[in-house]
Amino acid sequence: MYPVPGLQKRYSMPAAHPLSPEVIEFAMRRALTLAERGPADNENPQVGCVILDAAGTTVSEGWHKGAGTPHAEAMALALLPADVDPHALTAVVTLEPCNHTGRTGPCARALLDHGIGQVAFGLADPGAASSGGGDTLRAAGVPVTGGILADEVRAFLAPWLQRQGGEARG
Ligand SMILES: [Zn+2]
Fold it and tell me: What is the pTM of this model?
């Protein structure tokens, strides 16, 4: 186990989480930069994902290129090196991993299927159908921390959130 008093204090991070708040926030800013690569006018939100190993080193990255294409998490999972221990990995995602089966399958399920050790996300998914991914992961025993730089993510996604009227899609 790893001591993480700082992160626990700021985000109620599970005690087993090996990464400091600074590392998580740095990865979240990177994920936001990745999210910007996606189309800003799409029906789906711009989302970025960075997967870190236990040392805080980035092992994979992904972003969403628009409706009908893999979600950011799915892209990052697909690009994971073969030689990493998934249980030692932390997925840092700008938006809560989706929980519903849209055109591409739920990311919460994909993260579980890959055995990802921990998840940190920024903004909670506002969609009635797609929200709850964090709870799905938690119920499966994966430590999840939400709200990382949530204000920055919310500001970034403001146009999309406005278009949604609070309803996210797949
Ligand atoms: Zn998803």
Answer: 0.87
